[in-house]
Amino acid sequence: MTELVRFDHATLGYGRRAILSDLTFDIPEGDFLGMVGPNGAGKTTILRAILGTLKPSAGTVTHADGMRFGYVPQRDQVDYNFPLTVIDVVMMGRYDRIGLGRRPGKRDRELAHVALDHVGIADLADQPLNALSGGQKQRTLIARALVGEPNVLILDEPTNGMDLVSTTQILGLVRDLHERNGLTVLMVSHALNEVANYVERIALVVNGGFRIGAVDDIMTHSVLSEMYRIPVDVDSFNGHRIVVARREPQLPPRDNA
Amino acid sequence: MLDAILLFRDALYGALVIAVACSVLGVYVVLRRIVFVGAALAQLSSAGIALALWLSGQGLMHGLASHPIAFALLLTIAGVLFFGAGSGRGRVPPDATIGVTYAVAAAAGIILISKAKTGEAHDIFLQGNILGITAGDTMTLIAVAVPVLLLHAIFYKEFLFVSFDRETARTLGYNVSFWNLLLYLTLGLVIAFAMQFAGVMLVFNFLVVPAVTGLLVSRGMAGAFFWSVFSAVLAAVIGFSISVPFDLPSGPAIIAVSGVLAVFAYLVRLGQRR
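YS: structure for the whole thing
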């Protein structure tokens, strides 16, 4: 299997401050990887290194020749004040292919419609972006990432702030894109319970540590307890994995006498 | 009334060039929430003019009194580099940095002009002197505005992308810092030249109010640019036409009309929602 991205003893950080050290792992073609950890743990730092916008201070991060990423940013990173329609936004995914100073053509517009069809919102093409629901906005951003015909689809916190229905629909859509089209997917999230039930491999970024492996190898009491430094239980219900941190022991009742 | 307007037609043409250039860039200024960067750059530009006049009054650099644009450009470009490179990454929030620049530049401009022997009254910086624009000044303004507008027309999608979603633009290989700096540079250039004739208040108006009108009326980017330019030109023509025969200050008259158009656009928007 072709490796699309390879980290070789890479140290990542900003300035002199190293956030994660000695990272060694690959993202092979066809992977469905979830990168999970709390905010501030270094997920975005790894993401930037994968995207090539952050160079490692030691070691190397290499990409396969002709790599293209389809990046889906966090929804609040996009400015919804811009008076843009859904199709306008999706076509941005082709801007680098169109070239400097050139306008999108008929073919770009057709491909944008195909991408919208892929994510199930073809009928919203001419709607203003700011009139959409959270789930529809996320589908628009996924369509924009797909229209550039990427090797890897990268989603940054795709279900942040979404309700149960939208979360399930978006995660289902991402899984379909992986299974039907064989697309390599990297999904970054802080929600372990959500991601663990969809992806095939998990990278945990917690407390300055990094662990990557198949879901079955990572989703264990011993690995999660060691990484999160608290007792964590893993159970299953109707075929879904459920991760539960054990409750703190209850304090004895206060003596008011 | 028409005779009086025709008498100042060169001034009107100059005002129209300023209106068009500022109202196009204004759409980005408003959407990117850098309205007060525009104000700070205009103040820096006025401080540059005041500095040139003060130096000239001190017997230094005599030639600069007739070409204060050199100093206006110098200070504005310094501001562009500072704001465009992403000021305020340290302890001071970006809007506070803009506030400090605005206040200090405004005060420095007033102090310098009050001590400049060759200078004019300092309210000229605030109100400008639209009626003083000559045919030569208009040609200078056109020489600046046309390349800037052409650049924006050619690289519209690049400016749009880095303004709308810089992180994704970066992942697609766009040099976001370069495009941001270019946007700020065009902004600084237009402000520095427009400031000489229109004053801080009118330049700030043309950068903000028409764009707000355009964004209120339109649901698309092309419409926002069109209505922004249209309302700026309309405000310039009506404001100018009222000010000459009724002996009103031209800049504030144009701003008042801009404000009325913005309120009208707001009411139209309100009507569309119901």
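YS: worth flagging: Chain A has nine helices and eleven strands.
IM: good catch. Also Chain A has two domains: 32-54+151-257, 77-150.
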